[in-house]
Design a protein that fits this description.
This protein is α/β, with parallel strands linked by helices. Among the domains are: about 5-100 and about 155-230, Glucose-6-phosphate isomerase like protein, domain 1 (Rossmann fold), CATH 3.40.50.10490; about 265-295, no CATH class. It is built from 8 helices and 12 strands. The protein has helices at about 5-10, 45-60, 75-85, 105-120, 130-150, 170-180, 205-260, 275-280; strands spanning about 15-20, 30-35, 40, 65-70, 90, 160-165, 185, 200, 265, 270-275, 285, 290-295. Strands 5-4-6-7-8 form a 5-stranded parallel sheet, sandwiched between helices. Strand 11 and strand 12 form a beta hairpin. Helix 2 (about 45-60) packs parallel to helix 7, helix 3 (about 75-85) runs parallel beside helix 7 and helix 4 crosses helix 5 (about 130-150). The radius of gyration is 37 Å and the shape is flat.
Length: about 300
């Protein structure tokens, strides 16, 4: 759950919406009032929806899956990139490439090509090609790094998308919907909240407001990752304890077997216990000088 107060939201300007003439009627449940022709967002609804989104994202992070952040607008790109790097999640802050999700295998090919070109630049043979070819490769690598560098670690489709400004990122939402990927988004008064699964009514134009929301989102993801790490450590500890118990049991079995073998003697080709051998041996009697001598037939007490 996101620990955020009304005061923090007010100071960040999260409550400011768009002009009345630009509003989307679907946002009516999230609008508190209108002031000077500008809609004011209901912060109680913002907190409730933010808590709902953070708890869901925490569970996704705890399961070890990736969440892709999409924020290509000028006010959000730097803030999102800085915060998302801290939790090691993929993000797109440049142009959304059509087919990033629906044509993911092609995007993966481009990423592999980019990594091979990066390796090529460290190869001594790279210096043997012409200067013009080197410049072409370098420019192409820089361009691909700019577009795809932040999703290099995304080896499979993400488990969820977090979007800032759904009007600008409408292609990403369409692709996610087509693949049944859950979507989380900061939704302003000029947007349709029904297009995403987890809308957070808030100002998506102010850098300060975006920073506050992204900070709370990344904190919840970090909590999920920390819990996952603790669970893994507990599993490892249980496994180690079980292995120690198994080792102790095996040692005890070996000791019992050794003791059993010690109590047996080999007669011919068979193993006979020493107790049975003792039963079959003739009885003994006390001899001269305290020594025991075996009974002989005909002896009298």
């Amino acid at each position: 759950m996101a620990n955020v107060t009304h005061q923090e939201l007010l100071e960040a300007g999260v409550h400011y919406g768009h002009l009345r003439k630009k509003w989307n009627p679907s946002m009516a449940p999230y609008i508190f009032m209108e002031k000077n022709g500008i809609h004011i967002i209901d912060l109680n609804k913002t907190i409730a929806k933010l808590n709902e989104a953070t708890s869901a994202l925490k569970q996704i992070a705890k399961s070890g899956k990736k969440i892709l952040f999409v924020a290509t607008k000028k006010q959000a790109k730097d803030v999102v990139a800085e915060k998302v790097k801290e939790v090691n999640m993929p993000y797109i802050t440049e142009r959304w490439l059509g087919g990033t999700l629906t044509n993911f295998h092609t995007i993966r090919k481009s990423i592999r090509k980019m990594t091979s070109m990066d390796k090529m630049k460290t190869d001594p043979a790279f210096l043997s090609i012409s200067k013009r070819e080197r410049l072409q490769i370098q420019r192409q690598t820089e361009k691909m790094q700019k577009m795809l560098g932040s999703i290099t670690d995304l080896t499979r489709l993400p488990a969820a998308l977090f979007i800032v400004d759904i009007n600008k990122e409408h292609i990403a939402i369409q692709e996610a919907k087509r693949l049944n990927i859950p979507t989380f988004a900061v939704v302003d008064t000029n947007s349709d909240p029904n297009k995403v699964d987890f809308p957070i009514p808030a100002n998506d134009d102010a850098t300060k407001a975006i920073l506050l929301l992204i900070t709370k989102i990344t904190e919840s993801i970090q909590e999920g990752l920390s819990e996952r790490k603790l669970d893994k450590e507990k599993v490892v500890d249980k496994k180690e304890d079980a292995e120690v118990e198994d080792d102790v049991e095996s040692i005890e079995k070996k000791l019992r077997k050794f003791e059993d073998e010690k109590e047996e003697v080999v007669i011919g080709s068979k193993k006979v216990s020493t107790a049975k051998v003792a039963e079959k041996l003739p009885a003994t009697k006390r001899g001269v000088g305290g020594k025991r001598t075996p009974y002989k037939s005909g002896d009298k007490n």
